[in-house]
Amino acid sequence: xxxxxxxxxxxxxxxxxxxxxxxxxxxxxxxxxxxxxxxxxxxxxxxxxxxxxxxxxxxxxxxxxxxxxxxxxxxxxxxxxxxxxxxxx
Length: 89
Known about the structure:
- The protein is mainly alpha-helical.
- The protein has helices spanning 3-28, 33-88.
C-alpha cells in the first residue's frame, strides 16, 4: 500500500470515527459515555497513524534525495577529475 493510500484511509477513518462518536453520544446520551470515549480514542489513534505514515514517507523521500545528492556529487567529482586530466595532457 502506498503512503498516499494509507494517509487517505487513516484520515477518512478518523473522520468516520468522530462522526460515529457524535452519533453515539446523541443517541445514547449519558448511557454511552464509555463507548464514545473508546470511539474517540480510536479516532485519535487513526490520526496518530496518519501522522506516523506521513513522517515515514518524508523520511523515505529524504533518504532518496540524500542518495541522489551523493551520486550527483560523485559524478561531478569524476567530471572535474576528467577535465583536469584533459587540461594537464
